[in-house]
Amino acid sequence: MASNGYRNGTGTNKGAIKPPASSNIRSSSFKSRLPPSSNHSPGSALRRTSSASFTTAAGVPGRVRVAVRLRPRNAEESTADADFADCVELQPELKRLKLRKNNWESETYEFDEVLTEFASQKRVYEVVAKPVVESVLDGYNGTVMAYGQTGTGKTFTLGRLGEEDTSARGIMVRSMEEILVNVSRETDSISVSYLQLYMETIQDLLDPANDNISIVEDPRTGDVSLPGATHVEIKDEQSFLELLRLGEAHRIAANTKLNTESSRSHAILMVHVKRSVLGEEVAIPTESDKSSHFVKPPKPLVRKSKLVLVDLAGSERVQKSGSEGHMLEEAKSINLSLSALGKCINALAENSAHVPIRDSKLTRLLRDSFGGTARTSLIVTIGPSPRHRGETASTILFGQRAMKVENMLRIKEEFDYKSLARRLEIQLDKLIAENERQQKAFDDEVERINLEAQNRVSEVERNFTDGLEKERLKCQMEYMESVKKLEEKMIENQQKHQHDGFMKDKCNGEGPGFCEDIAVIKKLLEKETHMRKEAEKEVNKLKSQLGQHMDAGAGGDAEILKLQIALEDEVHQKKKLEEEIIILRSQMLQLTFEADQMRRCLARGGSGNAYPGLDSPMSQVRDSLSGHKTPVSALFDQVGVEKILDLLESEDANVRIHAVKVVANLAAEEANQERIVEAGGLTSLLMLLRSYEDETVRRVAAGAIANLAMNEANQELIMVQGGISLLSTTASDAEDPQTLRMVAGAIANLCGNDKLQATLRSEGGIKALLGMVRCRHPDVLSQVARGIANFAKCESRASTNGIRSGRSLLIDEGALPWIVQSANNDAAPIRRHIELALCHLAQHEANAKDMINGGALWELVRITRDCSREDIRSLARRTLNSSLLFRSEMRRLRIEL
Ligand code: ADP
Ligand code: MG
């Protein structure tokens, strides 16, 4: 073999050790990264094409590491070469190999590892393949090749399965074992292709039918792939062993079919490793502050690497391996791939500008493994037999040249979008779950608050209702008791009055009994007022609580509605309570009033009169003018007229009755009348009259109107508001003498107003007044008589003033017969009013004729004689004397005054 300058030694330098020219031989494993080499040639075609954009930035140069392994003598050699020494002598501790030329000459070569015939499979794996496998796990491509003469142990070294003896397992099985231990089953994947290259044809050992697989090179990255080859996913060692067995079986079958030996073909096992890793965090200076850094989170990356294990065809020359029987073509082909590999290694070792990579399929296939961008380990196997010295020497030289080949190592990483998406999905799921959890917690909290609010509201409601009910009962009881006491007192007083004449004097000064009662009732009232205030406070509290709950409960619309209903209930309750309080007050007013009456009555010794305004208005005026207010007025101030008037429209009939009584009593006092009218009391009373429903209401309302009608301004208001026709209707409808008395009293008051004369007549007031005499009750008749007297007086005044002329409307309306008839009535008040009426009518000549015809003259004459009142007697006399017609008639009748 020609010396090519890469030989470690030459024959002339006996025993001298010459490391390879670029001998940066290291004993370190491939894992230690080497610094960029100064002798790295940028002109290399392989290097140029391998600067792929997918690879990480800077490549790391690394030399191909070469180990030599000596096979032990086999049985044949032990016998045949028994007298000869081995052609090699190993110095493993010095990592040297001496190749004997003859008995006195040898050449020494240095390798990265020298493995003796005693080296275990484990050690071979550790020094030759393990660094490569570790490198593959780190993301680099890696290649382990076995080169050597047939029978020297290439297959033994690489492909032994070690099924019976695990210590015999070769590099293939051990590599897979190591990979399986180090990858993650969840995120990483391993797949395997197993191929045979024979006669420049690639066959799939996992699918024998697939017998012409083409090599695809990525022009951009320079990556080599075999897309047509079967890729089998490996999950465990067993499945891998199965696969290797299957491949071996297919290899034998294929070689039998091709009538060749496996030693003539190259067996290639490709292990594809895909691992998910996280990139490094990147610190980026921020725009605003260059000294601070924004740390970009690590990117998910996928590292793809490939371990190629190549059991090369025997390196012996064809003729020597007994291939004479084969076609020349075949021999050429076998030689082609191996010799092309040799040529490439030479070119790479010499840093030649041209590396004939495309000359064979083997070199194309190993493009990125051997002399490309991979960590590569070569094991050259040799036999000990001196008979094969030449082949052994050639093998050794091949290994030596290979040691000079530098590889550029580049890690291959791709951005792992799939795993990023997966991670984001997981993160999203987590976030959604967290959000759902929080939402649920929030909902639970809202529900809890609502429930709590509901409980609290119902508790407050319950307490409030109970309290109200208790207070109401208590008030009722107290009220009943007071009434009872008052009644007892009244009975007692009456009895006293009957049985003891001079008790009258006592009663006069005896206010104390009543005053005590009034004081008790006042106290009660104060209590009621206090309770009402408390109730108002409670309602306000409830309102504010409701407001709070409304704020607190975000989703509590229904709850709020409930609370509102409850609140409305409360307000309703409160209103009822207030009404009850006012009823109590009004009842008290009533009682006070009645007591007052009683006292007066006892003082006068007469019978009680419920509505004093009609007969003795002056007594009321006197009371109110006497400097201190009556109890009624004082209470009226306390309660407020508006509130009492409101009660006139209450839903509760009882309340309405009491209210109208109170208004009537108040209206009896002149001092209150203005306020009542101002507050709309007159209108309310007229309304009651109109919407007749209850005799008591109507009677009392009419009484109140009668009292108000004492005031001239009110008289006009009554007229304006249609009061005359209302009173007239009531006058014709009503049967109750007291109602009629009140209506008659009201009309009688109106009759005293000069301005209302015509309206009274046109709206049926006079007819109504006269119609009421049907009742015959002296009180009613008395009011009718008063009305007629009032009316006649006004007419008389108007006639005297020249405002009106002609016959009296009373005579027009047919009043005369009743006037004449009543002039002799036994009841003094009736008689007196009629007497006055007759005098007024007689003052005008226009009435004289009718009066004479109607018999009024006789009555007037009687008045001049019998009337108990002197002033009326002289008035009658004067009137008769001043009238021509009366005088002539009296003359005719021979009457003398
Ligand atoms: P090759 O594949 O290089 O043709 P093989 O691996 O088939 O050679 O080996 C040929 C024979 O030598 C086999 O019987 C094998 O068992 C044996 N052999 C090879 N290397 C060793 C070794 N280191 N120790 C023991 N036997 C070996
Ligand atoms: Mg073999």
Explain this structure to me?
- This protein is of the alpha+beta class and about 900 residues long.
- Among the domains are: about 65-280 and about 295-415, Kinesin motor domain (Kinesin); about 430-485; about 640-710, Leucine-rich Repeat Variant, CATH 1.25.10.10.
- The protein contains 34 helices and 19 strands.
- The strands form five sheets. Strands 2, 6, 7, 8, 9, 12, 13, 16, 17 and 19 form a ten-stranded mixed β-sheet that branches. A three-stranded antiparallel β-sheet has the order 3-4-5, covered by helices on one side. A two-stranded antiparallel sheet has the order 1-18.
- A hairpin with a 7-residue loop joins strand 14 and strand 15 (about 295).
- Helix 13 runs antiparallel to helix 16 (about 630-640), helix 20 packs antiparallel against helix 21 (about 695-710) and helix 27 runs parallel beside helix 30.
- The chain starts with about 45 loop residues before the first helix and ends in a 5-residue tail after the last helix.
- Whole-number average pLDDT? 80
Question: What Rg is obtained from the alpha carbons, in whole angstroms?
Answer: 69 Å
CATH architecture of the domain at 65-279 and 297-415: 3-Layer(aba) Sandwich
* Basic shape: rod-shaped
| Topology, number of strands | 19
Number of helices: 34
Low-confidence segments: 1-58, 318-324, 502-512, 606-629
Helix content: 55-70%
N-to-C CA distance: 195 Å
Given the helix and strand composition, which structural class is it? alpha+beta
CATH topology of the domain at 65-279 and 297-415: the name is Kinesin
Give the CATH superfamily of the domain at 65-279 and 297-415: Kinesin motor domain
